[in-house]
Design brief:
single chain, 303 residues, alpha/beta, 2-enoyl-CoA Hydratase, Chain A, domain 1, nine-stranded mixed beta sheet, two-stranded antiparallel ribbon, 13 strands
């Protein structure tokens, strides 16, 4: 029952994720439920499904030749401490969620893992700056505001935190980005998609055609309201109110945090649309453009 339950959650909870990724995710789960494997890509700014191989925090430092070199940080190395004057690079790669079942979706990104790495980088005296490398279309709203607050706390009180994307930084991922000291992107990155939605599909007619007849026994006006054939106008209004409340928190956070970076983001910019990196710069969603992560790291290590 793992996949039907995930699909039910997908269609009954608010999400801050690009709609095209939602459609692909639903298609993959439907295929898995039928015992098939879907080739639909979940990640990538232009339909490219390749997910970066390296997961977990890395150290960036200057090599003897003066170039930027990065190495993966194992749990043992984290305990021992980082090289002197390094920049921590923390990936935010995949569909954002909390308490992820990786067996159900290998394109997921667990906020628990990120929180752990952020804390380690913040507490390491040899880490001078932190860079979040985003490759994410967004994801679940659960836990996103709390992690955004943690990023802001580090950025405001401990050490600079930057975010860079050369692919996708959308929706829930941009919620995290807004928490940072500054945001950077490549010229053709996909940035924005600020907003929240809930995509609910009533399967009552399909169930009827398959010979299923749902008999529901419940207590509570809104209990089981999202089961097939059960969504009343009153329950629909309750779901819309939940989406609106999360969205207002999202909008307010982006406005507040970008103002701290000296940028005013217009409400018209936060209507669910995405921007190329160069256009995101023009509307205040990013603070600068870099061709690649190493270019940004080189500037930070030389500062």
């Amino acid at each position: 029952m793992r996949y039907p339950l995930i699909l039910g959650h997908l269609m009954s909870r608010p999400w801050a994720m690009r709609p095209d990724t939602m459609r692909a995710f639903a298609q993959i789960l439907h295929a898995a439920e039928m015992g098939q494997r879907s080739s639909v890509p979940l990640l990538g700014a232009n339909g490219e499904g390749a997910k970066p191989e390296v997961q977990g925090m890395r150290w960036a430092r200057k090599s003897a030749r003066g170039s930027v070199e990065m190495e993966y940080v194992s749990p043992t190395q984290r305990k021992e401490g980082s090289p002197t004057k390094a920049v921590a690079v923390i990936p935010m790669h995949g569909i954002i969620a909390k308490y992820v079942d990786r067996g159900a979706c290998d394109s997921s990104f667990d906020l628990q893992d990120f929180d752990r790495d952020l804390s380690a980088a913040a507490n390491d005296p040899n880490i001078t700056q932190i860079v979040i490398h985003a490759h994410s279309p967004g994801g679940s709203c659960t836990g996103v505001a709390e992690t955004a607050n943690r990023i802001a706390q580090v950025a405001d009180d401990v050490k600079p935190v930057y975010l860079y994307t050369d692919s996708d930084c959308c929706s829930a991922a941009y919620w995290q980005a807004a928490s940072c000291t500054n945001i950077f992107a490549s010229e053709m990155a996909c940035v924005g998609s600020i907003g929240v939605y809930l995509a609910w599909i009533d399967q009552a007619r399909w169930m009827e055609a398959q010979g299923y007849d749902l008999k529901l026994f419940k207590a509570g006006t809104f209990k089981a309201a999202t089961l097939p054939g059960q969504l009343t106008d009153e329950a629909g209004q309750l779901l819309q109110a939940e989406v609106d409340a999360i969205a207002q928190t999202f909008y307010g956070w982006v406005g507040e945090r970008r103002a701290r970076a000296g940028v005013a983001v217009d409400q018209a910019t936060m209507q669910g649309q995405t921007f190329l990196g160069r256009d995101a710069l023009a509307v205040g969603l990013v603070d600068g453009l870099y061709n690649g992560l190493n270019e940004l790291l080189n500037d930070l290590l030389n500062s």
